[in-house]
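Quick start: what a row looks like.
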Amino acid sequence: MVYAEAKRIMIAYENKQGSIQSLIAQSKSQTMSYKKLLNKIIKKSKMLENEKFLGDKLAQLLVYDVLFGMGVRGKFKSAVKRNYQSLTDACEYYMKKYQVDNRDNLLKIFDEKQSFANNSSNKPKYVYINQLKLKKKEILNKLIDGSYQKVDYDKKDENYMKSSQKYKDLINSLKENEFIKDNHVKNLIIFKHDAKINKNYNLFIEGHLLQIDKSSCLVPLALNPEIDSHVIDGASAPGNKTILLSNILKNTGLIHAFDIDDARVKTMQNNIKQHNVTNVRLKCMDFLQTEIHKYDRVSHIMLDVPCSGSGMTNRFKFGDIDLENIKDDKRLWKLEALQRRMLLHAMSFLNVTRIVYSTCSIHQEENENVVRYALKNCDDRFKLVNIFADKWNYGRGICLDEKDKNDFHLDYCIRTCFESNFTNGFFIACFELSQNIDQDSFSTEEKTIEDEINET
């Protein structure tokens, strides 16, 4: 009777037969706020395929009670028991996907009130201090002289070392003229989302400051080339990550920057000039068309590949649109094929010892699937590096089985998202040369899209 009554209330709410408040007043059911999550778990577990007699509403109630409530009793207990393992596995999958360590925190992400709060509290403004013109201290003094104030906090406090709620509360408590130093990225400062500072401010115009999301900063940091290194930036425009790369190199060495779009290349030319970048050789060219023998001094490759952009917070508001349900499978299929080709091409350069692959996508097709494919097809030439191992334990690559974890080490990759990190959704994998082999044994033969996708 309890489930039947709760089912009736949910149907009445969806049919606009009463307000949420009035309907909840008649029942203690907690499932409405978490319907989106429950539907995801039900779909992934295939529960309704096995127990068609339940129906959507009753299945939601049962799944909530067995995973998040007090358990299930009565005549539906046997149906839940038959699907318990698949439901548990599905729940754990979404805990990894949304980077939470327990079921209660997973519920918080999908709570309707919490989603509304996330949407109304926008992503902070991340600003990188470009030291290719002036030293950091000089730039900060100019910023403070311009009526901005730095707020200090204890970076050694574990609550601030991680992107915890306390750290988010600190950011949201900032006044419009206040900023803090980031807890991970050196030379990155953070303003509240509604801070008055913008790209028209003189320090931006003069090229001393660069507005860039924190997740994007992690890509060149993961590559971390030594001074005087020769580096390839395989998909470089508009050039923000390239500017950070040049800062790491201190304008030494050489960055070969490629982009296939002429308009974006022209934008990047202006961008790197504005920020006093002098070690970049920019070409309007497809990275896949580069001849490897012409770049025998290159030791590092940064590959921020073309992708669906599904992780960009300015593209969709979290909670308003279910990104998983609006995936364009055909487009993802083509993107994955392109991404595989680009990554394998990067691995074919003779003297490259380190490669960073990244996307601003949340989809496994563009992330773990591409990495897994590359590791299977590089003749053991490269292995994954456990990047930021001691600093980033709350957003890792998704492992589907023991092989992913123990052989491929996909959990060495990192994922970022707004809910956990206050950033765009990003995926980053770092490869390191594991052994030297005869280049002839590593095939770079061109393949069709169909070959790329069908190979495992």
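That is the whole record. Residues 207 and 275 are 4 Å apart (CA to CA). The mean pLDDT is 83.
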